[in-house]
């Protein structure tokens, strides 16, 4: 029912906080000022956090070969620090997803025990579905990616600030220094993880809950008919 879109996703209703937070932040191909540029994932990083101890359990990172625009723009390299050699030597998106599944399996990650944490809704609501569309992929989006926590919304709620800026504004608000390079995917994941851990330390584990949902088209259709 409509509950799905409220603040109580099924983990929150059950009152069971996740075992793991998986902090995800894609980097993608881009061109300066070109909103129509078809973004493709070029860095696929995750920092896995134990939700009880707030310790980092593991990290996943791979570079991905873009297909539509295999040559990175100078703007993209300047922004992300990702070089042409890194993507040329990267994995295809299919091999990346396969490696990611193996990694999730190794840690026993499931949609029930893991909550993805992103800085915005773009990564899992827009980028991943678009990526699979470009590849005319038969790959389904794994159910583990169907829900996530947009940390910006949580930050705004907990700190009574309507719409917080991006990651650097949240770090500033929490008086945390930026570590590493902004727009390096893995460094962004580590910094978002620090924001997440500080919010959990200050407000408790249940303050961070799923607030983003990828509702498959079939569900939307069914919902519209009821």
**How much strand content do the residues show?**
15-25%
Mean pLDDT: 88
> CA-to-CA gap between the ends?
10 Å
The class by helix and strand makeup works out as: alpha/beta
Main sheet attributes: strand count, strand direction, barrel closure = 7 strands, mixed
Alpha carbon gyration radius: 17 Å
- The run of helices and strands is HEEEEHHHEHEHHHEH
User: What is the helix tally?
Assistant: 9
CA-based shape:
globular
Helix content: 25-40%
Counted beta strands: 7
Stretches where pLDDT is under 50 for at least 5 consecutive residues are 1-14
What are the defining features of this structure?
single chain; 226 residues; alpha/beta; seven-stranded mixed sheet; 9 helices; globular
Would you mind describing this structure in some detail?
This protein is an alpha/beta fold and 226 residues long. The chain is globular and about 45 Å long. β3 (41-50) and β4 form a beta hairpin. The longest helix has 19 residues, at 185-203. The chain has nine helices and seven strands. Helices cover 38% and strands 16% of the residues.
């Amino acid at each position: 029912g409509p509950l799905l879109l409220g603040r109580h996703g099924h983990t929150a209703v059950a009152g069971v906080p996740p075992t793991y937070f998986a902090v995800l932040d894609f980097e993608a191909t881009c061109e300066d000022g070109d909103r129509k540029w078809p973004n493709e994932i070029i860095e696929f990083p995750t920092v896995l956090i134990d939700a009880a101890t707030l310790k980092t359990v593991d990290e996943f990172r791979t570079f991905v070969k873009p297909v539509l625009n295999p040559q990175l723009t100078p703007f993209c390299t300047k922004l992300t620090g990702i070089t042409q050699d890194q993507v040329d030597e990267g994995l295809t998106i299919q091999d990346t997803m396969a490696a990611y599944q193996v990694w999730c399996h190794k840690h026993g990650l499931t949609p029930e025990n893991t909550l993805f944490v992103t800085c915005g809704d773009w990564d899992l609501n827009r980028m991943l579905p678009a990526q699979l569309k470009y590849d005319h992929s038969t790959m389904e989006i794994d159910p583990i990616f169907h829900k996530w926590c947009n940390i910006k919304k949580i930050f705004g709620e907990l700190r009574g600030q309507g719409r917080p800026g991006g990651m650097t504004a949240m770090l500033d608000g929490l008086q945390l220094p930026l570590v590493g390079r902004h727009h390096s995917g893995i460094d962004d994941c580590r910094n978002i993880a620090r924001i997440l851990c500080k919010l959990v330390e200050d407000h408790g584990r249940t303050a961070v809950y799923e607030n983003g949902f990828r509702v498959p088209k079939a569900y939307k259709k069914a919902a519209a008919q009821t």
